[in-house]
Amino acid sequence: MINRLTQNIFSLLTLKGVDYVLNFVMLPFLLRMLGADRFGAIVFMQSVVQYMVVAVEYGFNMTAPRDIARASDERAIAKIFSDVMAAKVLIAAGLFALTLIALVLMPSTVEFDVLLLMAVLPTVLGNIAFPIWFFQGIQQMKFITVSVTVARLLILLSMFATVRSPDDYLIAALLQSSMTIVAGLLSFGIIVRSYRYVFVRPTFEGVIEALRDGKQIFISTVAINLYTTTNVVLLGLMTNPTAVGYFGAANKLIDSVKGLMGAFSSAVYPHVSAKVRESPRGAIEFIKKFGRWYSGAFLVVSTLMFVLARPIVEILFGAGYEQTVEILRLMAWLPFVIALSNVFGIHFMLNFGLQDLFSRILIAAAVLDFMLVVPLTVELGNIGVALVMLSVEIFVTVVMGVCVKRKLQSFRE
To answer: DSSP states of 385-401 as a string?
Structure first.
């Protein structure tokens, strides 16, 4: 088990290492070619479409790996795979139908970049096409590494060949949103070759059960997006694409670091899920050890980003992005804070049956975010949004930490 865990962590670290290199090439390239205004428009539309991605993801990114890791045989794994895929397709079909109706009924007086929406929508299809959760569950993350690396390289090369000016923003948006589709096609080739047993007929009862099982995680994910994605949407509605561009530059950089955090977390999560079944106390000790070095490592990362914010912005984004420096200094502490909440929430609360409490904490965080984001955005603009995001993440971490401490005390009694 430990050998497989080590392999999965190594695979995801390799993936994120490649991801970092490619992001540090693509992000500065796009900022320079498109400018803050067009880049901000893309970030805004990506944030709008993220709501659809969350709906299609539903909660399966947490429940499916856990259930697959605990499955007793290939037949059980195949049932989980087929039911989850069917549920995601049904959700996506409903969302696309609603989007079409909304576009048809939209008043002509409303300014909305429909072509940009169409360019970003493939992100939703990519969420279905790329079953990361399956490879997480069977703890074979090396396949994700191969698929994503090849897909990102192809997209990056295409970007260099086609994006030359701000007028090419639609091409840039389409290429970015197509990455997961390319990775999905590659991963499905791997599944057909090595895991063909998963292709069985889904059942209505199985789809309903999958939706019921993922409901609490879905509520939690919606709450998370209400205090992350919605902030970007509100910033775009209350200011302008340029302000979103300055904020988006820092946010994309933080997202890259969060991707590295997710690499560790995704590799460890199914291992903890399986360990809980074998020995709950052993799982607790593992989570504690993992949490110490995981949070410690990202405390170092956050400190370095805070101290080096100005040279980072100057080197990566070039002239004209001075406003991004102060935003990055505030957001630099997010990796450390989120690392702690990942340990408390994902690895402990979700694996020890505290999904409902987990959801309530995140809903409370969303309410707090809405109370703060509008007045602080009016007063401070994109700096206000960064301050709100940091404050809300600290709230989540502290409350989850208190809940976990109480649960651990009950284990000792």
So the answer is: HHHHHHHHHHHHHHHHH
